[in-house]
Design a protein that fits this description.
The protein is an alpha+beta fold. The chain folds into three domains: 97 residues; 94 residues; 147 residues, Heat Shock Protein 90, CATH 3.30.565.10. Helices cover 61% and strands 12% of the residues. The strands form two sheets. The protein has a five-stranded mixed β-sheet, covered by helices on one side. A two-stranded antiparallel ribbon has the order 1-3. It is elongated and about 180 Å long.
């Protein structure tokens, strides 16, 4: 805008100078009448008439020339201003807008939109440039979504790695205790019954083997502890970025779910009250295993009682077709104190931990992830208190 103002000022000054030159020339063209020479009265009278006639014609011609020149000057002034406006409108302004737009894009502001004027020479170019901005914006959004999905995946994997690592540590503790008891027994036997050289050699050999096993168990335990610390570090680094991870439910045999419960012996006594109906159901194998592991692990951690599991079928109206869908219902129940009634609505919220979890490790994501996974598989999850804590999982049948 400053440049166009300078152009207007310079043009106005030049036109005013031209006007001054025109006026100066007009005044200089006026000739003063010459001195009358020696003429008689009759000749003098004739001369005056001729001279007056010539002066009148000359003045008329000068006035006409001045009028024509002033009109031309005025038209030239208007045309000049019009040309300056057109240059500004169709050249300078679009370039200025492009400059400001490019500056915003360089700053990373992809929300700003470039005004598109199809009536100037940059019309198609500005449209293409704005399409590039939209593509850059979409690309940035895809990049952010991919980054968040990656962080979420890392966070969820970190959370789910806790269980196998804890199982390894618990197994190491049990084996370490057993081997130490066996080592203590053999050392007592060596002192009491190791009379012969062969007997001492045999017992010493067993002691060395047990000590080697205890050392290996300690090594495994220490490495498990290191893995656990690394998992916790990675988890906390991505904790606030959990959003969503891909879940792909497929047709699977229902017996797979029953086998999941059979593989959780480290959580104590899991009693199957009945056999699961043999059918095909929709679920993601990995996510379904995580759901069952989280729920059974919570019951073991907070209740510490036998866990009863029963299976049945349930019909529910479909939200899409209005028809009824058939679900396999899995009921998981412990005999613990349950969850306080005021905390039940918050149990599946992200990062929520109950009042009874102060002295127990965790992040408040187990029930949140279980509920999230079940919904994404086309099923659902409900929980309530009934002489213990009860969780019902609904898995859609084929």
């Amino acid at each position: 805008m400053k440049n166009i103002g300078k152009i207007i000022i310079i043009y106005s000054i030049l036109m005013l100078m031209a006007l001054g030159i025109i006026i100066l020339i007009w005044y200089n063209t006026k000739e003063v009448s010459g001195t009358v020479g020696s003429y008689n009265a009759e000749e003098l009278e004739m001369y005056k008439k001729i001279h007056e006639s010539m002066d009148a014609d000359k003045v008329l011609l000068q006035n006409r020339m001045l009028s024509f020149t002033m009109i031309s000057w005025g038209m030239l002034l208007i045309l000049g201003y019009g040309l300056i406006f057109m240059i500004y409108r169709f050249l300078i302004k679009p370039v200025k807008e492009m400059e400001e737009y490019a500056s915003e894009i360089a700053k990373g502001n992809l929300e700003v939109k470039l005004p598109i004027h199809r009536d100037n020479m940059f019309g198609n170019f500005t449209e293409s440039f704005d399409m590039m901005r939209e593509e850059l914006k979409a690309s940035r959004e895809r990049e952010l979504d991919a980054e968040k999905a990656k962080r979420e995946m890392v966070a969820e994997l970190s959370h789910d790695l806790k269980t196998p690592v804890a199982t390894i540590k618990a197994t190491c503790e049990v084996l370490d205790m057993r081997y130490k008891k066996e080592l203590e027994r053999l050392e007592k036997t060596l002192k009491t019954y190791g009379d012969t050289y062969e007997e001492k050699q045999r017992i010493n050999g067993e002691i060395e083997v047990i000590r080697g096993n205890i050392e290996k168990i300690g090594y495994i335990y220490n490495k498990s502890e290191l893995i656990n610390e690394l998992v916790v570090t990675v988890f906390h680094a991505t904790l606030d970025d959990i959003r969503e991870i891909e879940i792909v439910p497929r047709e699977n045999e229902s017996k797979i779910i029953e086998r999941y419960f059979g593989s959780l012996r480290e959580y104590g006594n899991i009693i199957l009250d009945n056999s699961i109906p043999e059918c095909l159901v929709y679920f993601d194998k990995l996510r379904m295993e995580q759901v069952i592991d989280n729920i059974v692990g919570n019951s073991y951690k907070y209740a510490g009682t036998d866990i009863h599991v029963s299976f049945s079928e349930q019909e529910m109206p479909s939200a899409d077709s209005g028809k009824k869908d058939v679900f396999l219902k899995i009921t998981i129940k412990d005999n613990g104190p349950g969850v306080p009634d005021e905390e039940l609505p918050l149990l599946a919220e992200k990062f929520h931990r109950g009042t009874n979890s102060k002295d127990k490790p965790g992040y408040g994501l187990g029930m949140y992830l279980a509920n999230h996974y079940m919904e994404k598989q086309g099923g659902g999850m409900e929980f309530y208190n009934d002489n213990g804590f009860v969780v019902e999982l609904l898995v859609k049948k084929v």
